[in-house]
Structures are given as C-alpha cells and as structure tokens.
Specification:
It is a single chain. The chain is mostly helical. It has 22 helices and five strands. Strands 2-1-3-5-4 form a five-stranded mixed beta sheet. The relative contact order is 0.10. Keywords: Membrane, Transmembrane, Transmembrane helix. This is Glycosyltransferase RgtA/B/C/D-like domain-containing protein. It comes from Pelomonas cellulosilytica.
Amino acid sequence: MRTDSTPFRGHLLPALAVGAAVLLAYVLLCSAIRVDDVERYWQEMGTNRFHWDLGHLWMQPLALLLYRASGGVLGINHSLEAVNVVSVALGCAVFFTTLREAGHSALKGVAAVVFVAASFNLITLGPTAHIKLMVFPALALALHHAMRWERAEAACEATLRESVKCGAWAALSVNLLVSVLPQTLLLALFMLIRSARRQGLVRAVRATLPYAVTLAVVGFGLLLAAYVTARQTDTTQAGGLVEFAVGGLKEKQALQTWLASWKEMPLRFAFSLVNNFAYLPSLGTLGRAYLWGWLPDARAALPALAGQVALAALVGGLLLATFLSGARQALRGAAPGLLSPWAFVLGAAAFSYYYNLNDPEHWFQFTMPVALLALQLRRRWLDAWLLGAAMPVLLAVNLAGYGIPKARFALAEREQALQVALGPQGLYVGFAAYPGEPDSSLFDTKGIERFNIDLAQANDPKADTATLLARLDERIDAALARGGRVLVFRALDDHDWRGPVMQVALGGLPRARLREHLAARYRISGPVDAGGFAAYELAYKAP
C-alpha cells in the first residue's frame, strides 16, 4: 500500500489553501435565514451568560468565550456564523491533510474535500449561525490521529503520541456534541481488535489503553470544569456533579423520538443517510406519507420525483458499494486505514438509528469517514463513482437547489411583503417548526397574530383534537370580526408533506380532517401569493 510519509507540516500550505477556498465559498453561502436552534443561540449570547446543556456541553460556552474575546465586533449573528464557517474550513483542511498522509494525490484530496463540503447537511448547517459544526475540526483531528495510530501500529512503531492526541480530540468532540460518544467508544474497540489480530490480547490492551485513558480523563476533566464554572457563575441549579450530568442527559433524552413503525425505521434510516449527502426536498416526506396511508396515490407525484429518485439511487448505490466492499475488506484483515473510518461510520449510525431524527446535526458525522472509507479501499471504479460522478452531481444539485437560493433569499423584503399581505388585523395560521427550506414559519411578522397548529398541539397534548379546532375557530372568528385577513400556510397544501405535517397528523389532525372542518365553517379560496408563499384564504360563507 502506497503511503505518503510527509508529516503534517509538509502539507500545511496546501491544506491552508484548501481551507481558505472552503471558507470563502461558505462565506458567500451565508444566509439571513435563521435555521433550527439559531434563535436560542442568539438569546443565550445576548444574555452574556453561559448555558450548559450536556448534549452540547461546551458548545455554547465556548462560542460565548470567543464572542467575548473578539469584543463582539462582528455582532452576535456574524460571530456565530464565523465560528461555524471557520470550523468547516478547518475540518476540511485537516481532512485534506489526512488524505495526503494516507497516500492519496493532491487532486484526489481536493476532489474529496469538495465532496465533503458540498454534502447537503454541511451546506445546510455550515453557512449559518447554527454552531453545532464547532465540533467539525475536533472530529477531523480525532480521525486524523486514529489513522496515524493505525499506520504506526502496522509498522510496529510507537503509538503513544497518536493515541493520546486521538483520545484528547475525541474527548473534546464528545464535550461539544454528545452524539459523537458512540464513535469514540467504537474506535477504542476497533483499536483493540486490530492490535489483538497482530500482537495478541495482552499487547493489544497495552496499545489501546493510552487512547482509552486519555478519552476518559480529558472527557471527565472537561465535564468537571464545566460543572465548576457553572457553579461559580451561578448558571446551574444542579447541587452536585452527578445531578448536573444526569439532568442534562435526561433533558436530551426527552427529545428522543421513539419508533412510530418498525417497518418505517430501516427505510427512514436509509433515506436519512442518503439525505445527508443529497438534497431531496420531497422524497422522504412523500415516502413517509405513503407508508402511513395519507397519500392516496403516489403515482401522481412520480414525474416530479424522478430526478430525486435518480439522485438517491446514485448516492445510495455509492454508499452500499462502499459499505459492502469495506466490510469484505475488513473481515479479510483490514490494511491500516480502514478500521478508523469504520468506527466513525458505525458509531454515528448507532446513535442516529436510536435517536430517530433526520436533523442534520445527527448525520453530518458520516460525511468525512464515508469519503475516507471509500478512498481507502483503493478501487478505481469506486473512486470514479465517488469523485467523478457523485461529487460533481451533488455539487451542482445541492448548490443550485438549496445553497444558492437560500443565500440569495431576500428575508427582509419577503417578511415585509408577508406583513402587507396579512395586514395589521390579520391572522397567520400555519406551523412554527422549520421544515428545512425557506418558509414563512421563519418570518418575523412583528405583532401580527399567529396560530401555530403544531405548537398548540404540543403545548397542550392532553387536549383532544376537537378542543384544538375549537380554539382555532375562535381565533379565526375574532380576526374576521375585526376585518382582518385570515391566511392558512402549508397546512392545507396537499402537495406539501414536509415537517411537521406528519407529526401533526400522528397527533390526531391529518390534513384531510383540518380541511373538512374549515370547509364546513368557512369559504376557502386560493392558493394566493403571500410574501412569495402559497396560502389559502378563509372567509365567512355567504348566508
């Protein structure tokens, strides 16, 4: 196996150039649209206080420390964006160096970085103030030193330095994003297996112990430092360290979505993995609706879905070929450089399957190790598939379909147009949850009354659907009585199955029931344009 023995510093300038190119691209992709938890991060930074969440233990505090260190010159939003964008650039630079040290050409390394940087979930999170990607450089460095450990172990050279470095970066990764924990634990297991194959169990334990001890000591040290800081700054109600840790875990676990259907889970997992790489705006939601029987006939949607199906087949085939070839190679006695990416891939899979969410923050961890695994197999046909076919297609589709439109989205102008469409006495009826694409649910309507169906359902889960609809009727009647315009967004659109449509339906209010109820009381017209979005207008029926 050909390897490049040039140390990290020998690739420093090319890696910095690669990182700078990624940085520039992501700066140009930054958008005014607020994604997912960004509003919460703004509020936490605005209070100038640490916020401790064991699921992302040091993430918000570290961002706050960086914000304080900069004197806030960029403002809250741009500071958070800078943290995210720089993190992606640094992670990609480290990944490029990892590939070069593993013996891959500079051209192949650049193409692989483009594949990673252009993956859908990174484009979704990276050019935003959603700082979950702060973990990206630490993940890249943990993987980098794991690969170095494998090569040193195979050459019967000292592995202590790489074990310690890998353990330290892995521990930092866990403290930034707890979903990384299965990856770090599997890495220890795979280190043990690889060494045991070559040297026997006793020597394998000795070889793996530095990594495991460093992971435990640094990880616990960062947890203890967080608790001490939280106590000194009076930013926790926990009386003891155990309560601090367990309370955070319970808070995170409360968000876990349990299985809705055993037959759905494998399909949902497979789709989420493909969706990590490819922009598939309606394939997953329509597929889930079809599985649950709320899409009467999927054939009508097939022409519009043909391109997404083809893209999913391209990426899904690539992943399947990589995993099958990689598993076969590993079982035969993996050459150095295969077990580390396998540990990261399987660890991320374990968490994501259990947690049962398609959030980008739970899936971007696959991106680097999948690309590394595919390249480490050193199959020309697989390299051509990954870099010659999938990479340019994903770059074009993800940028043209999602990245560039989101970056160019005129949020302020569209918000103003929506306010004009609703009028000062109007009522907005729709959802609060972000569906993954530019949506009116993200808009600040400045005083205009809203009825968010999903929030009303979630905030009073004991209330039955009839009670929820009665409250909706009251709000509609009040708006119409004062001469306001009532517009319903997405909830009545038969072609929109993005979140949280399915969650609301599972909660007892499928779209058909909502439409039937409203049609019995009001005249429904539309769709009409409201701020660039389709909406349905409600009015009293003629006597």
